[in-house]
Structure formats: C-alpha cells, structure tokens
Amino acid sequence: VHTYGWSDDPAGTRHRCLDLARRALRAAEDDATVLTTVAYIRTIVEGDDQGAINLIDRAVALNPGSARVLY
Fold this sequence. Notes:
This protein is mainly alpha-helical. The protein is about 70% helix and about 0% strand. The chain has four helices and no strands. It has helices at about 10-25, 30-45, 50-60, 65-70. It starts with 9 loop residues before the first helix and ends with a helix. The mean pLDDT is about 90.
C-alpha cells in the first residue's frame, strides 16, 4: 500500500508499517523470514539500507540455506 501510493494517508500508512515491522522484529528476532521481511521494509519504506543489510546478515547466519533469505 505504501510502496505503490495506494493510501489516502501516506504518512499514517508509513508509520503503521514501520510500527508493525518493529513489533514483528521484537516478537521473532531470531526468525530469518521475519528478518528478511523487516529488512525489505527498512530499505523500501524507511530508506535505512545499512539497517536492512545488518538484518539480512543476521538472517543468513541463522538460515543460510533459505531461498527466502538468499533472494
């Protein structure tokens, strides 16, 4: 929704997206799939490329054979 501009409230949608990403990370900080999903959100929505790279590095360390992590 945020990425494609489909929101009537882009700032609110961005805030909600980042809040949900933070909550997911707190709930499952050792889940490689969660880490990769939050990494995507960090780079696309937040513009935090280095934070995304850090999460991807953690995800690869946790599950180096995961197609989702490597994609």
